[in-house]
Prior knowledge:
This protein is α/β, with parallel strands linked by helices. 31% of the residues lie in helices and 19% in strands. It has a seven-stranded mixed β-sheet with strand order 5-4-1-6-8-7-9, sandwiched between helices. It has a two-stranded antiparallel ribbon with strand order 2-3. The radius of gyration is 16 Å and the shape is globular. The N and C termini lie far apart (38 Å). The model has no long low-confidence stretch (mean pLDDT 85).
Amino acid sequence: xxxxxxxxxxxxxxxxxxxxxxxxxxxxxxxxxxxxxxxxxxxxxxxxxxxxxxxxxxxxxxxxxxxxxxxxxxxxxxxxxxxxxxxxxxxxxxxxxxxxxxxxxxxxxxxxxxxxxxxxxxxxxxxxxxxxxxxxxxxxxxxxxxxxxxxxxxxxxxxxxxxxxxxxxxxxxxxxxxxxxxxxxxxxxxxxxxxx
Length: 196
């Protein structure tokens, strides 16, 4: 199983350097690394920023002909095929509370994405079976008027299905300064609840 953390974005809504933004004294991406490391055989970061080098994980450049999250996802799919991975788990760098059972929860063949009850599927997270990785839809077929395809479009082309989850907090995305403050508050609440 190959794990890929998408960290190629600029994080402009947070003022830049989103993976390095601190949550409880640790970079956001470090929380994601800790969640994924026990679940995969190999872990990589999709993003070629020099600021990602201190995390001591292989860096995977985005697909050159695309921009945005689609570039990271296509690069991840190509890498998984190149190394003959038995599966692929893709997550963004800004979800610090991901469960350590995510890969197992999403396993089930094909391509699975999480969906919290009453909400839309979370397209930035996907789990791919070996069979799904061997498919090769034509990107041009679902690119919109020459624009970059969305994650949703790519995953739909692969026939992704949604797996229902009841709680939303594991999939809380920290992509604004306000969201970072909410994440800090959540960590503080957890600390209080865990105290003897």
